[in-house]
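Q: Now give one record:
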Amino acid sequence: MQKFQLSEYLIISGIGSASGIVFANHSLYIISDNAGFLYQYDLEYDKLLKHQLIENSSENILKIKKPDFESITLKENELHIFGSGSTQNRNKSIIFNIKTQKVQENNFSETYQNIKNSIQISNDELNIEGALFYKEKLYLFQRGNGANAKNGIIIIDDNIKCHTELVEVRLPKIKHVETSFTDAVLVGDKIYFLASAEDTLSTYDDGEVLGSILGCIDIETFKIDFTTQISNSHKFEGLTLYENSESHLEFLLCEDNDTEELETKIYKLIISKK
């Protein structure tokens, strides 16, 4: 059992169904799977800004129409945001430049179709929940909570233009349900990830939340260093590094409360290095 401390860090009004988080330049950048905005919460001035990512953005888009932004990662000065790919409406990729605030929208349908063909899953089983870049490769984290339960890391070479492969990752169960990826972040050569257990075989419909774990994977060998359950009731969906000291790592987490309430709790998770 990894030593950890989990506590509520702050509450942000104006954001619902938080699904991804990045800490950069004294701000928290947060996406919501219900909304078409990128939210920027300035920690120094306690101020919330909204950046429109798609046309006709709103706070609570109908489930059948929402872009379902589930993944956000920082590469140099750009935030890369990805839809889950679980329906045709969820195939967008957005690049947001932190310095210029320029928004670039891309259609990721072809890439997602290539992934489905390569790893042999059906259209409704693709469910991308996390992303990171490492050595000119894009790593996408497939949440294997569908009927075929293909949970793993999809690696795309040459900046999403060439070869695609899947490293399947089996994770511990909470009660009777195997946990599956909900986010990941790179710290050195280690992938720290969140995974949750939800009592459903659908990538579209929500189920009873059974809890969440934190784990660590070596990015070169894909060996799991550890996993530890951090909650038996929260569905944590966003993870970002907040502080890296000699003795511990501090992460900030967000959770998807699966409601239309525009309030988000941010949690601090401290993991001992000893």
Summary: Residues 143 and 181 are 5 Å apart (CA to CA). Residues 109-119 form the longest helix (11 residues).
